[in-house]
Amino acid sequence: MRVLGLSCWYHDSAACLLEDGVIVAAAQEERFTRKKHDEDFPRNAVRYCLAEAGSAQVDAVAFYDKPILKLHRILETSLGVAPRGLRPFLTALPIWMKDKLWIEPKIGDALAELGVSSERKEEPPVFFPEHHLSHAASAFYPSPFDEAAVLTLDGVGEWATATLGVGEGADLKLLEQLDFPHSLGLLYSAFTYFTGFKVNSGEYKLMGLAPYGEGVHTQTILEHLVDLKDDGSFRLNMDYFGYLDDVVMTNHRFAALFGGPPRSADARITAREMDLAKSVQEVTEEIVLRAARHAREVTGKRHLCLAGGVALNCVANGRLLREGIFDDLWIQPAAGDAGGAVGAAYAAWHGALDGPRPSVTRDRMQGAYLGPEFSAAQIREWLDAQGYPYEAHEDDAAWAEAVSAHLADEKVVGLFQGRMEFGPRALGNRSIVGDPRSPRMQSVMNLKIKQRESFRPFAPSVLEERVSDFFELDRPSPYMLLVAPVLESRREAVDARGDATDLIAWVNQKRSDVPAITHVDFSARIQTVSRETNPRYHALIRAFEARTGYGIVVNTSFNVRGEPIVCTPEDAYRCFRATEMDVLSLGPFVLKKSAQPGDDAAFERRFAAD
What we know:
By secondary structure, the protein is of the alpha/beta class.
């Protein structure tokens, strides 16, 4: 039995196909359209999922929230703050009247256009699990736990902004919820907006900026903005926020509290933004810890599953793990709205369709390698048609030797292989990799490859069996969702902080023997690489270790600022030529920049800043 899960018409649209409770495929629409955070119906992602299954026949469709409940919330909150809520209401109303009130027939029309049908009737039934049930299902059902507490935290679904649930076998229940407008996700987004980053895409920049600052505003936030309870629930003081009765996140009172207006996107980042980032990060971590302790008390479970946009805050996740509240955590790798497609499909399969849940020892996300794959024959045919010179390697061992030699020579390598990752993290199949020992690698990759802010840290991919040789972490972290400290024995003394506004100088101080992945607070966002889950990437890092003694590489997503992660060989080649990347590996084929024909400038493509 096949269930098609859908997430769309807000941001990060995606599709997921389950067959008898097993994920066949999942992908985000942005990867196909090249429009970052594409919100439209995921036609291309659905088409891909059906092709992977070899059939356009599905038995049920599940959409990741209940639109009519969301409209009810918008109407009620707008009336509750009238007449001040008129502006956001008038902004939202035309969209609802034109599109969002008609989601079920729109889904039917789109699926009919794609030729989707079911055995029982022409159109498969459509289920609408609530938004946070979709998040909870995406967290628990693919996890490796038979039983677990479940926490979901995000901006807002219909009414809920956070939920506490419990999963046992195929049964999942939501026990408690926090309602709009009191939202940890929206609190974090308010600071994202105020510090000059884009809401719904710049939150990870705020998290990366936090280690540069001091928590000088933490108490101010807790005294004036957040009334925090022992169980992790809270109320926001809406006198300081604009999202309830306006179309901005914060208002003039918020600005007065923090010493002036929001930073404009093109303005220099100052100590104020760093300190604000650190302060809201500390508050976020405290809320997550209190909610987790409460979840342990209420459910009595030894394991915790997490989803929702806040679950992508890997700094908070790392601290939660180190606190030892639960024996272990599992976080949905596509924790944001894209992962709602996975959760909606699982909620329908185990709920409405009463499907069984098999016992598992590893999680069922398959390393998040759920997207399109291109064979060596397809890649060779495309390269030959374009006339792009390459070196071909007949087996993985020869390929790993060749690519590891480039890495050891401080070359930056674009890595394109296997199935594309699902979720926001590149995990070795659509990645840009480099030598973590190089003191210059962080600035080179930020400024010349990624074309992004100089303060942004990079993550390591480390052999699963070597993680404890580099970091204070004693377990796998396959999805790059845990931050942990670099071992004390690998750290190097650094100068005093000095001028906090000189970000480049502060970043470029060497802090360990793997400086390219060591953040200013001696931390790293870790991906462990398993031989079982990704044997080819594992072989590359092993070959690099044989050359250098280091079973670890720098890993960042294969894209430039404002661009979705690459999907096809053509996407990868264009990005390779438009940046100062040295080498491109397309499957078994290795391309050197110096050998490529034509002018690199012909491949430049500008994406809107994210």
